[in-house]
Design brief:
The complex is a heterotrimer. Chain A is built from 10 helices and 10 strands. Chain A is α/β, with parallel strands linked by helices. Chain A has 2 domains: 228 residues, P-loop containing nucleotide triphosphate hydrolases (Rossmann fold, 3-Layer(aba) Sandwich), CATH 3.40.50; 40 residues, no CATH class. In chain A, the strands form 2 sheets. In chain A, strands 6-7-8-3-9-10 form a 6-stranded mixed β-sheet, with helices on both faces. In chain A, strands 2-1-4-5 form a 4-stranded antiparallel β-sheet, covered by helices on one side. Chain B contains 11 helices and 10 strands. In chain B, 40% of the residues lie in helices and 22% in strands. By secondary structure, chain B is α/β, with parallel strands linked by helices. The longest helix of chain B is centred in the middle third of the chain and has 18 residues. Chain B has a single domain, classed as Rossmann fold. Chain B starts with a strand and ends with a helix. By secondary structure, chain C is mainly alpha-helical. Chain C has 2 domains: 155 residues, no CATH class; 79 residues, no CATH class. Chain C contains 11 helices and 2 strands; from the N terminus they run H-H-H-H-H-E-E-H-H-H-H-H-H. A two-stranded antiparallel ribbon of chain C has the order 1-2. In chain C, a hairpin with a 2-residue loop joins strand 1 and strand 2. The chains are: A alpha/beta, B alpha/beta, C mainly alpha.
């Protein structure tokens, strides 16, 4: 079994009126199948309302499946006894930086999780020190969160999760409320944890440029996984992505349009460097030669 | 018709530990009917600057003239100014409060002292302009999606029939489609209603495609002011203060260095595409 | 303006006072507040002044910063002082129209004003040197015995510390909402009380909605971080008395005893 495995996962939001009769049913997740290996950096892409956040909340058992199953590190989320173990294994960072910081001092907030799971005092301090170092926030440890920038607050939130020593961190649109600088800051901090500590990263976003470095990308639309593959495989399908209301990074889009105009460059260009090199090698009307084939579609 | 700022200064909590120069010595002229982008970091003073334009924040020194009149004049009607210079804040959640969308949009015109009938007409046409489907008008504004809420917030200000419309980060938190729709909407409003639009953003790519003039703020001062082309030519200087020009600008410069004769001033995707195709043709 | 309330804020520093056990500070503040109402003469007043000044100096909180918190209180202070000034019978000093100012009146007005100022300074010194979390920890521990009476001490303490964390955020949000509505022509200043009350609706509705949303988000985030009440919880900063706490208890008790002595014998 994979580290995280979803099989035909369904979630319905059911609205009831005062008498408890069903008023409306909204299917947020529709037969989602998904696998994630330990240590991977997986991105889940989708526009607002595509079901990606609903999926994220299942990984931490903040929501339970209506149907289907989901295992996190071999533990079934439908098993009520495993609830706290799963939450320890899979930590979660949310969108709004303010609404997830509990304490009024940075280090006390980072210690909040370990306190909840009954870690002895001395070890809490070690974990807090380590986690703050991991996200580069040690110098702010005695500050009030209110005085920090958005990116710094999110790094504190990540440290708060890291202090619980999870094997996997789910970041549910952690950059949606940040400016470009803050977005970079948070993405870099998270990637470092993935590379240096081997923490599995599940990055949920609608910003395409954030997923360029992911190992694998899942694209969701109306509650289902509609595309999966490496970033390159995904980015080479510009028209499909547009259909799912996603924003293709400017360089990929430009490369795509140049290709359509007959310039001989490969599909699935991700970065500016790639495009510069491709253009310098290429010419007009000498199509093909793309080494980036292989597209996983569902 | 114009807004003129003459050496405007503003400091938060002057004279104590939290003292912070928000903007210093800003002099600007904003002409009628322009589509302007203001860019800068969080904390660069851009939000403080726009709050001066409708008198929400009062400068500690310097003067501001709206259509030639000093807005700090004792007889100046500040309420009138706020109606002429509409300001839409970043979070629509901060202004939506009524039970229905339609009533909420009526709030502004009613505050202007218009007759209920007239206010409703204004709301009607504002909601039309922002393109919110009519079937939603009598619903609660709290059940809308992020993009729709933003539209209602814009309509709420538009209904006051401002001559200048300032929008603080109107695309923050929206998904790509929502963002494009709002920006298109603003461009159309600018074209059809002939009003001045000032767009505050931190996304270079967003503004480069739409605005005709770009003001870059850094540490409370105007760092650059010109057309997007002129401004992005200083991409190294922008980089030095932690802002970046659109990816296209970098691409074009790098291509030139590699010997491809492209137009280094291209700022939008279309310009870049055309220029690269031309250069490739010449090379052959 | 709302931003300038220092009451209930924490001022980070590394002084001895900051490091004291919150229970000591709670107890000390309590005794100090009682002590303010014990002295009647200049000697007692001098002792209290020295004590307060010493504490402020040791705490390394800038005096100017503390004083800012007083501004709000000035109005209350003036009213109290005026009452004392005009309503105390005694030896006449000045008389006009229906007002009589007496020597006793002046004395009691000054005393009252001093007491109130000292009260505010003393209590704000406690909040300025104690993080809200320490404060609630202190209360939780000091009031722990109430648990046997089925009082949810931990939950109350947690609620208090969360409230303290979110007050500055909501104050800032209020400011933003006000601006957004003023930009739409809302008027919060003119009109009679009914008109003013009605004008608050566009401010309060968004504020409440936002507060509920934040509460909801925070509850989820706390649950995701395995919060499940006080049971089985450990502490990052458990309260353990140090030598300096014993010393501090000593200082506070000596101070209090001194004032009692002064009151009885002088």
């Amino acid at each position: 079994m994979k580290f995280i495995e979803a099989r035909k996962l369904v979630h319905e939001y059911i609205r009831r009126d005062e008498e408890g009769n069903v008023e409306s049913i909204q299917t947020a997740l529709d037969q989602v199948d998904l696998e994630i290996e330990e240590g991977e950096f997986v991105a889940v892409l989708g526009h607002n309302g595509s079901g990606k956040s609903t999926f994220a909340k299942h990984l931490n058992v903040l929501l339970s499946p209506t149907e289907g199953s989901l295992w996190v590190d071999g533990k079934d989320v439908n098993d009520a006894d495993k609830l706290w173990e799963i939450r320890k294994t899979a930590g979660m960072v949310f969108q709004n930086p303010d609404n997830q910081i509990v304490a009024s001092v940075v280090e006390e907030d980072v210690g909040f999780g370990p306190e909840n799971i009954g870690v002895p005092t001395r070890e809490i301090w070690e974990r807090v020190d380590q986690s703050l170092r991991d996200v580069g926030m040690t110098e702010y440890r005695s500050h009030s969160p209110n005085k920090l920038s958005g990116g710094q607050k999110q790094r504190v939130a990540i440290a708060g999760v890291m202090a619980m020593e999870p094997r996997c961190i789910i970041l549910d649109e952690p950059t949606a409320m940040l400016d470009p600088h803050g977005r970079r800051e948070v993405l870099e901090a998270a990637r470092r944890l993935n590379q240096e500590k081997g923490v599995t990263l599940i990055w949920i976003t609608h910003y395409m440029e954030e997923v360029v470095h992911a190992d694998r990308v899942y694209v969701m639309d109306s509650g289902s996984v509609v595309l999966k593959g490496t970033p390159r495989e995904i980015f080479s399908q510009v028209d499909t992505l547009k259909k799912y209301r996603l924003d293709v990074p400017q360089m990929t889009l430009l490369a795509h349009e140049l290709r359509q105009a007959g310039v001989g460059i490969p599909a699935g260009i991700l970065t500016r460097q790639e495009l510069v090199e491709a253009l310098c090698r290429s010419g007009l009307e000498e199509r093909g030669g793309g080494g980036y084939a292989g597209v996983g579609r569902e | 018709m114009s807004i003129i700022l003459d050496k405007v200064n503003f400091t938060y909590s002057p004279g104590n530990a939290y003292e912070k120069h928000a903007i210093r010595d800003i002099s600007l002229k904003i002409n009628d009917g322009q589509f302007i982008g203001i860019i800068g970091h969080t904390g660069s003073g851009k939000s403080t600057l726009i709050q001066h334009l409708n008198g929400l924040v009062r400068a500690q020194s310097g003067a501001i003239y709206y259509n030639g009149e000093d807005i700090y004049d004792r007889d100046y009607d500040m309420k009138k100014l706020r109606q002429k210079v509409g300001l839409v804040f970043q979070y629509p959640e901060h202004q939506l409060f009524e039970t229905t969308i339609f009533k909420d949009v009526c709030f502004g015109p009613q505050n202007q002292g218009l007759e209920p009938k007239e206010a409703e007409l204004r709301a009607f046409s504002a909601l039309r302009t922002v393109g919110l489907p009519e079937k939603l008008w009598y619903q609660s504004p709290f059940e809308l999606s992020g993009g729709q809420k933003r539209r209602v917030a814009i309509a709420g200000v538009l209904a006051m029939e401002p001559e200048v419309m300032i929008l603080d980060e109107p695309t923050a938190g929206l998904d790509p489609r929502g963002r494009d729709e709002i920006l298109e909407q603003l461009a159309r409003m600018h074209r059809e209603l002939k009003i001045t639009i000032i767009l505050v953003s931190h996304s270079m790519e967003d503004v480069a495609n739409y605005v005709e003039r770009l003001i870059v703020m850094n540490q409370g001062q105007v760092m650059l002011d010109g057309t997007p082309r002129q401004v992005f030519a200083y991409y190294r200087e922008l980089e030095a203060v932690g802002l970046s020009a659109p990816q296209v600008t970098y691409l074009m410069h790098e291509l030139r260095q590699k010997g491809l004769a492209v137009d280094a001033d291209a700022t939008t995707l279309e310009e870049a595409k055309a220029s690269i195709l031309r250069a490739l043709k010449e090379r052959r | 303006m709302l931003r300038e309330i220092t009451l209930g804020q924490y001022y980070p520093s590394d002084s001895v006072i900051h490091r004291l056990d919150p229970r000591v500070k709670l107890f000390g503040t309590l005794l100090y507040v009682i002590s303010l109402f014990t002295f009647r003469n200049v000697v007692g007043f001098a002792i209290a002044t020295v004590f307060l000044a010493a504490m402020i100096a040791i705490s390394r909180v800038p005096f100017g910063f503390m004083v800012k918190g007083l501004r709000m209180i000035v109005i209350v202070l003036l009213i109290t002082a005026l009452f004392n000034l005009f309503l105390t019978p005694g030896k006449l000093v000045v008389e006009f129209w229906i007002f009589h100012i007496t020597e006793e009146g002046i004395a009691s007005a000054v005393k009252m004003a001093v007491r109130l100022i000292y009260l505010i300074l003393g209590t704000s010194l406690m909040t300025l040197t104690t993080t809200p979390n320490q404060l609630t920890d202190g209360m939780e521990k000091a009031l722990g015995f109430l648990r046997f009476l089925k009082v949810p001490v931990h939950e109350i303490a947690m609620m208090m510390s969360i409230a303290l964390r979110f007050i500055p955020i909501l104050v800032e949000e209020t400011d933003k909402i006000m601006k957004a509505q003023i930009a739409r022509g809302a008027d919060f200043e003119t009109g009679n009380i009914f008109k003013k009350a009605k004008a608050m609706v566009p401010l309060l509705v968004p504020l409440f909605i936002s507060a509920f949303r934040r509460a909801n988000d925070l509850a989820l985030a706390m649950e995701a971080r395995c919060y499940h009440g006080g049971e089985g919880r450990t502490k990052m900063k458990p309260l353990r008395y140090q030598k300096r706490d014993a010393a501090a208890y000593g200082v506070v008790i000596v101070y209090f005893a001194l004032l009692i002595v002064v009151r009885i014998w002088l």
